[in-house]
Specification:
This protein is of the alpha+beta class and about 190 residues long. It has six helices and ten strands.
Length: about 190
């Protein structure tokens, strides 16, 4: 295992699942880490869209066709959001440069409807990815996750869901550039 893979993550970091991770929840996953500290870690998967649109889940938000992503395997009956730009929603937490997590959901809907927050700057998630204290650090030491060297920005989030993992792996260069092309199941190669 390369020393480059082990790093202490911070909120706002992107985590990439290692190429051979076989956990069905996290195969070829790109994850935004929103919290990492004494209470554990929380993040959202950025590249697993569901078949749902936000208007399927939130009454009165139509006519906005905005896909909802599977944030992770924990509490999939809960709805979460991140958005880009300036803080426009009360109680949002800054998790990276111009990336905000959570806050007052009713205010978010109002900002979308009055167009003071463009819908294409908001990402919705069902459930989340969570780790107990020390669990994510252990998984990093085992090589299950790779900490991407740059923080999330709109250019990254707007990459194709099918290509974001490969693109970010290639961007890291070195061994990661080659690992981006590994088949999910090498036995089928």
């Amino acid at each position: 295992m390369s020393k480059d893979r082990i790093s202490t993550p911070k909120p706002g970091n992107i985590l990439l699942s290692e190429p051979f991770l076989q956990d069905s929840n996290f195969i070829r996953t790109v994850l935004l880490l929103c919290e990492h500290g004494d209470a554990g870690s929380v993040g959202f998967i950025l590249n697993k869209p569901t078949i749902l649109q936000i208007e399927d889940l939130v009454e009165g938000i139509a006519p906005y066709n905005r896909e909802v992503y599977l944030g992770g395997p924990v509490a999939q009956d809960t709805l979460h959001f991140i958005y880009f730009g300036n803080q426009v929603v009360k109680d949002s937490t800054l998790v990276g440069k111009d990336v905000w997590w959570g806050g007052d959901f009713n205010e978010l809907i109002q900002k979308i409807q009055d167009q003071s927050l463009p819908i294409n700057q908001v990402f919705f998630f069902l459930g989340y990815s969570g780790w107990e204290v020390g669990q994510l650090s252990q998984e990093l030491n085992e090589g299950a996750w790779i900490v991407y060297p740059d923080y999330l920005d709109e250019a990254i989030i707007h990459l194709s869901d099918a290509q974001i993992w490969k693109t970010l792996m290639r961007n890291m260069g070195g061994e990661f550039q080659f690992q981006a092309n590994y088949p999910i199941d090498p036995r089928l190669n």
